């Protein structure tokens, strides 16, 4: 009898052990899946314009999620990071597993004469340092693409060639960018006047113009670059991109360029979509 009771409790103990082991296994916490996240108006400095919008995809990782940073245009006197909202769906249509950041920076105030260049250049340096410090927290990789249109394209190229000592930027992409500021206003008196206000007279401030011109910082180690321009652009002459192309060729820097017939300073939706597809193709070839 005692043997039967002992055997009964042994079996019961074994059944209960298996049962509770199964329950514990079912209740083991699952690995957290990173959700998509938007961070709007994140501050990267102490000025009201030191803001960025951050768009993080789900299931991102520090190994595989690339980061594309967009700098808005507006002739260094206007514009807003919200411009990227128009392009974001087109980027997402051709890109997988990308995070995006859209930047604001200080604008030149023509009425008060404040925040002249290089305030904008300094803000991009500050923003890029901030972004670098956040990559781990955001769980995105160091495969960074720096891009922008018009004045934003100028700032993207200038930073990529002049201030990329840490190698954070892997590819630069620019849309109708000013690349050599001494000549950017040669065919447009309004642009010439604007440059004189933002930097000063080309005669007395020549070095400042040279310091602010991306083509002057291209060398054999410069990042691969893709850029786009319309041949009917009457704001930033297409000659600015011709000069960039010649300079990149001279130093053997990988590049892809597209010159769109009949397009001005601002493309049609179809052209922008083609451009974005070409940007992604170039990135994929380089990274």
Automatic annotation (TrEMBL):
<dbReference type="InterPro" id="IPR029058">
    <property type="entry name" value="AB_hydrolase_fold"/>
</dbReference>
<feature type="domain" description="BD-FAE-like">
    <location>
        <begin position="52"/>
        <end position="248"/>
    </location>
</feature>
<dbReference type="InterPro" id="IPR049492">
    <property type="entry name" value="BD-FAE-like_dom"/>
</dbReference>
<keyword id="KW-0378">Hydrolase</keyword>
<protein>
    <submittedName>
        <fullName>Prolyl oligopeptidase family serine peptidase</fullName>
    </submittedName>
</protein>
<dbReference type="InterPro" id="IPR050300">
    <property type="entry name" value="GDXG_lipolytic_enzyme"/>
</dbReference>
<dbReference type="Pfam" id="PF20434">
    <property type="entry name" value="BD-FAE"/>
</dbReference>
């Amino acid at each position: 009898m005692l043997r039967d009771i002992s055997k009964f409790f042994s079996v019961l103990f074994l059944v209960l052990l298996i049962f509770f082991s199964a329950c514990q296994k079912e209740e083991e916490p699952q690995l957290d899946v990173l959700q998509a996240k938007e961070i709007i108006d994140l501050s990267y400095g102490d000025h009201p314009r030191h803001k960025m919008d951050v768009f993080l995809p789900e299931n991102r990782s520090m190994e595989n999620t690339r980061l594309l940073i967009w700098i808005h245009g507006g002739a260094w006197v206007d514009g807003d990071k919200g411009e990227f909202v128009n392009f974001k769906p087109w980027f997402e249509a051709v890109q997988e597993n990308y995070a995006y950041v859209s930047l604001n920076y200080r604008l030149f105030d023509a009425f008060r004469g404040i925040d002249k260049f290089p305030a904008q250049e300094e803000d991009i340096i500050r923003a890029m340092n901030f972004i670098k410090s956040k990559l781990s927290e955001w769980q995105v990789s160091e495969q960074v693409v720096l891009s922008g249109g018009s004045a934003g394209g100028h700032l993207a190229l200038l930073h990529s060639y002049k201030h990329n000592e840490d190698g954070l930027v892997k590819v630069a992409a620019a849309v109708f960018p000013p690349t050599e500021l001494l000549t950017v206003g040669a065919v447009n008196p309004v642009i010439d006047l604007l440059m004189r206000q933002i930097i000063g007279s080309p005669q007395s401030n020549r070095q400042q113009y040279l310091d602010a011109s991306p083509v002057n910082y291209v060398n054999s180690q410069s990042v691969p670059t893709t850029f786009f321009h319309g041949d009917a652009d009457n704001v930033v002459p297409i000659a600015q991109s011709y000069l960039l192309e010649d300079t990149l060729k001279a130093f053997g820097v990988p590049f892809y360029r597209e010159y769109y017939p009949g397009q001005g300073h601002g493309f049609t939706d179809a052209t922008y979509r083609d451009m974005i597809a070409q940007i992604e193709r170039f990135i994929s070839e380089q990274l």
